[in-house]
Amino acid sequence: MPAREITFGQALNEAHIAEMERDPKVIVFGENVSSQWREATKGLKERFGRERVRDAPITETAFIGAGVGAAIAGYRPVVELMLVDFGLVAMDQILNQFAKTTYMSGGAISVPMTLRVLTGAGTSSGATHSESLHGLFAHMPGLKVVVPSNPYDAKGLLIASIRDPNPKIFMEHRLLYPVKGQVPKEPYEVPLGVANLVREGKDVTVIATSLMVQEAMNAADELKGKISVEVIDPRTLVPLDEEAIVGSVKKTGRLVVVDEDYLHYGFSGEVVALAAEKALKSLEAPPIRVATPNIPLPFNAKLERELLPSKEKIVAAIKQAAS
Amino acid sequence: MSLNDAKTTDIYRTMIRIRTFENAVRRLTKEGRIPARFGLYTGQEAVAAGVSAHLRKGDKIGSTHRALGHLIAKGCDLDKLMAELMGKETGFNHGKAGPYHTFDPSVGALGANGIVGGSVPMTAGYALANQLEGERNVAVSYFGEGGSNQGGVQETLNLAACWQLPIVFVCENSSPEVQRMLGHEIDYPQLSIDNVSKRAKNYGMPGSTHTGWDAAEVYKAAGKAIRRARAGKGPTLLEFKVHQLEGNLEGRLEANEKERQWDPIDLLKQKIPRKVDEQIRAEEVAKVQKAIDFGVKSPEPTPEQAYTCVFKEAD
Q1: N or C, where is chain B less crowded by C-beta within 10 Å?
Q2: Which of A152, A184, A216 marks a domain boundary?
Q3: B287-313 pLDDT, tens digit each
């Protein structure tokens, strides 16, 4: 497929358009989705009408629940949550109803809704506008958790998510929105559960998600010629491509996990546990986690940077793992 | 629209079916054949029966953790319902749902719900789907006066009005005189007003309060609201005052005249010829007995089934 350069935000917009054209059951709602300032949903109302593209009041419980209901009733809602932190007011609908209904109904019910969520720190927005929280959602049974890191994956993963018959939480780091990349014009799927080998290497495996994939690549570039770094982007946390992670750890014997989510009880620990359970004998050094410590993110930019994973921290971790 | 004789008989039959089924559930729970106790609907039968008398298959309901009346009135198969309550493989949800999460999409019974007020936002979604389909189907969202305070319920009243959804909110207020919570007296009130329906005005929809043990009144009020929703004129909040009656009424109520006046079956029975009443009761007892036999004979799920249905395979 011939590709051209567009942004992450434009790629998401194209995915919406492609699926809404293909399937009349795809509907979109959320706060301000009809406005031109919401890049992912820009122009959808004009193109598909106000029945299928609706602004919702700032009541996350009501409109996420309505999405769950519409999905149960046969639609494929794509519901936008302005920031993941705001989803915390709607946890019953997300974690009890959205995630569990398929199982509780013994498979009688499908909930093919995609909950699109903006995430991420680095904008000096403080502790309730900066979180990642993918580990929280991945912890609960029943949700597929999608964490795109580039425009190509954003489009393909969103299309695959909308077509998947299960509950998905699709987590978009807002600093990725202006990032450009090569994206085919045609619709395509990036399958859920297949990791991306972003960079091949032989000395150290780095597992990174979302915005941290680019940070990991920057670190690998800096170490070029000294340490050969393999970078893997799982792309989805649920389902997790365990084979890709374990295979790489077996090859390199050294593991660094980079995660913008909180350190404790999270994705970084999950990957280290996976390596311990399935590749212990291959490990030549203790795995290292570069993640945000369990501290609410502060407003001050210097303080915020202090807590977040960075290229420098990743470089140091890779060096330590390789030593 | 007032009740004609045929409708009266239909509604009465539904109420008897619910009462008979729940009395059996009481007994089976005591005997340990249903593994857990849960909230029953005794005393409230006129609400589900009177509302459902206006509903058709394409209409959808969202219910509560006191769901049996709503499910039965919407037309759920009694065999599969009883098997589900017994946790059997042949239940609607293969023993994974139990009383709090029963789903029967074949009749639009889209869920009992274990969270107070939890089904209400979802039911707005059923209404949204109906609105988009354009078939003039509606949704009915059941909750109690306790649930009415939940943020999600308040939010959904607003959303339904903003989107002019074809939905009827049915609040069954089971504390019509003294405010109670989970059947117990409370020191501080949980409602700041006497009638939940007063809140309707603030959300831009009609609201009214009715005697929930009078099937004719329920039928009339529900008919008006459901016709309004079908016509695309938006949501309504109905409140029905009810008394939850504990225990097997056949024995206990005779000693309690005060409670007896709140029994919707006793009230409607006056309009049913004795022979018809006897026939309905006999038929419903037989149906419930068949459901019990079906449930008892059904196999348990296998341990492997604990692992299935977390996710669905792609179509």
Answers
A1: C
A2: A184
A3: 999 999 999 999 999 999 999 999 998
Which range of residues forms the domain containing residue B18?
5-186+193-307
Same domain, A48 and A149: yes
Would you call A165 and B124 a contact, using CB atoms and an 8 Å cutoff? no
Q: Is residue A90 domain-shared with residue A219, that is, in the same domain? A: no
CA gyration radius, chain A: 19
Between chains, do B125 and A105 touch, taking CB under 8 Å as contact?
no
Residue linked to tokens 């709602």: A29
B residues 92-131 closer than 8 Å to A (CB): 92-97, 101, 103-105, 110-111, 113-115, 118-130
Beta partners for B109? B61, B104
| Contact by Cβ (8 Å): A207, A258 | yes
**Phi, psi of B12, rounded to the nearest 5 degrees:** -60, -45
- Both A127 and A178 in one domain: the answer is yes
Which structural domain, as residue segments, surrounds residue A213? 196-322
Has residue A191 been placed in a domain?
no
Of B260 and B251, the structure prediction assigns the larger pLDDT to B260
DSSP labels for B206-270?
-EEEEETT-HHHHHHHHHHHHHHHHTT---EEEEEE--PPPS-HHHHGGG-HHHHTT-HHHHHHT
